[in-house]
């Protein structure tokens, strides 16, 4: 994947101290040729904005991307995008600016952030740490809302469709980038009202609960 450096403006720092509804968010999902980070690339992305506590479908983006490597057989069984389905779609270099505009000045919502973090870094040539500072892993919010232990992050469960069903969110097309981004956005809105320790969270609270606290846990891990 090309790593040409493209600057994507981050969200204003003032967002962090404001009630979360005053910030702008965008749910992001990638479908990819596979999960070999050394060679694979994206084949589609879905972006769904959240503004003033509401999903804004009018500004959503869904785009196929013609990759430089064919989707692996396993990935095709998951997202059902074959090489012939992708042929003629915009290339990654053509899609990069579209994605950059959709993410600019917004906090990024993902489900299981590690995948999106890698591909964002590869697409824009920027460090993963820079993206992590502006990202909320909605899966982590689901774990917090359940009062589950940190080990739940590595246990089975907490898949997007499974969690959506529990939250009463319809799932039309699992592993479709647009539908997964939409479900992630809806899950975010439901979960912000179910956080037992933060009934009225600020944006900074959500950034911390949605993954930022893992950095703190590692830094301040007690000696055993």
What does this structure look like?
- The chain is α/β, with parallel strands linked by helices and 224 residues long.
- It has a single domain (13-213), classed as Nucleotidyltransferase, domain 5 (2-Layer Sandwich).
- The protein is built from nine helices and six strands; from the N terminus they run ββββαααβααβαααα.
- Strands 1, 2, 3, 4, 5 and 6 form a six-stranded mixed sheet that branches.
Q: Could you give the topology of this structure?
A:
Blueprint: E1 24-32, E2 42-51, E3 54-55, E4 61-64, H1 73-79, H2 83-86, H3 92-103, E5 107-110, H4 113-124, H5 128-132, E6 135-137, H6 138-145, H7 160-167, H8 177-191, H9 203-219
Parallel strand pairs: 1-5, 5-6
Antiparallel strand pairs: 1-2, 2-3, 2-4
Helix pairs in contact: 6-8, 6-9, 7-8
Low-confidence residue ranges = 215-224
Q: Residue share in helices?
A: 25-40%
Query: At the third CATH level, what is the topology name?
Result: Nucleotidyltransferase, domain 5
* Overall pLDDT level: 88
In oligomeric terms, what are we looking at? single chain
The domain count comes to: 1
Q: Provide the succession of SSEs.
A: EEEEHHHEHHEHHHH
CATH class placement = Alpha Beta
N-end to C-end Cα span: 42 Å
Task: Report on the biggest sheet.
Answer: 6 strands, mixed
Give the helix/strand class: alpha/beta
- What is the C-alpha radius of gyration, as a whole number of Å? 17 Å
Shape: globular
- The CATH superfamily is identified as Ribonuclease H-like superfamily/Ribonuclease H
Number of helices: 9
Give the percentage of residues in beta strands: 5-15%
The number of E-state strands comes to: 6
Second-tier CATH architecture:
2-Layer Sandwich
């Amino acid at each position: 994947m090309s790593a040409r450096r493209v600057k994507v403006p981050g969200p204003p720092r003032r967002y962090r101290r404001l009630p979360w509804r005053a910030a702008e968010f965008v749910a992001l999902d990638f479908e990819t040729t596979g999960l070999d980070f050394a060679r694979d690339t994206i084949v589609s992305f879905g972006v769904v904005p959240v503004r003033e506590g509401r999903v804004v479908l009018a500004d959503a983006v869904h785009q196929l991307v013609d990759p430089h490597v064919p989707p692996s057989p396993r990935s095709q069984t998951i997202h059902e995008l074959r090489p012939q389905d992708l042929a003629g779609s915009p290339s990654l270099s053509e899609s990069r600016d579209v994605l950059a505009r959709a993410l600019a000045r917004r906090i990024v919502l993902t489900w299981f952030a590690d995948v999106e973090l890698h591909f964002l870094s590869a697409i824009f040539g920027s460090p993963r740490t820079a993206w992590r500072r502006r990202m909320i892993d909605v899966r982590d919010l689901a774990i917090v809302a359940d009062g589950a232990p940190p080990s739940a992050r590595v246990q089975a469960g907490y898949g997007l469709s499974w969690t959506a069903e529990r939250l009463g969110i319809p799932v039309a097309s699992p592993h479709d980038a647009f539908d997964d981004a939409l479900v992630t956005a809806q899950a975010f809105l439901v979960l912000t009202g179910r956080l037992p320790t933060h009934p009225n969270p600020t944006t900074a609270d959500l950034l911390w609960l949605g993954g930022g606290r893992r950095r703190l846990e590692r830094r301040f891990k007690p000696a055993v």
